[in-house]
TrEMBL record:
Pfam families: ROK. Coiled coil: none annotated. Belongs to the ROK (NagC/XylR) family. InterPro entries: ATPase_NBD (IPR043129), ROK (IPR000600). It comes from the Bacteria. This is Glucokinase.
Amino acid sequence: MLKICADIGGTKTIVGVIDQDLSVIDSQKFETDVDHPEVEFTKIINIANEFSKKYNNVAQSTLNIAMPGPCDYTEGLFLNPPNLQKYVGFNAGDFIKAQSAFQPHFVNDTDAAILAEYQYLNSDLEDVIYLTISTGIGMAYIRNGQLVTGIDGNFGEIGHTIIKNNSDYQCPVCHQFGCVENELSGLAISRKASDILQRAVSTREAIDIYMNNENENISRMMNEVVLLTQQLCTNLFNIFNIYHIILGGGVTQSALPYKANIEAYAQKHHLIQNKPFHIKVSNLAENVLTGLYYVNEQ
């Protein structure tokens, strides 16, 4: 059975047809309309209708959707997504049901990603955390083989917890200084590098400058980013009593030595010294979209 799934990101949206082997059979991608949620979801519905007509073996009423949090995923209500502020208060569930025959199911994008990642773990591991480091920061948790979602699906909103208590940058969304997202994310790296060089610097360029040791101030900044990421992961090892973290997101696909650095730091600073700490950098393409296949089966 095929299922129609949609992954809504802060910059792009992809609607795809997924099979039981988590392969993308067909897909369409478009730029997310960050200002008009009605336009955004009308596009999603139209593409989904095209797919439902094109494929005979597709679940006709199923539309599984990953949304960036925080949202009320039981309803599809956007609460306060940092990169989609014009969506606050928009009820996607009501809109889809009023405009189509689809019965939508909603989940946090990191929750969808971990559902895909979990299928490809070559072990009988039952407890694992997925940490995405991309434009933003997100976390998901599988405990005893089951996804932990929280009361309204917002378990793991780690991006707006505090990691740096002497930061001089105030988050425009949570209004705190030193939150994880504004210290460790790709957007944070770009912002910090741009401030240092007094010009627009992409995340990729900042990392390249760091890896080539071209600028002392960039190196100092990136060393702190790496250290804070090591500390964050060690906090997760401690809090959740787990030994496996999967890293995903665009920043983790860079040359930054996340795996070796985090494992070495945790081994040195975690109180339990006789167990290995495992960091796996994801190699799955479209893990959010494909993981949506399992959403309404949880």
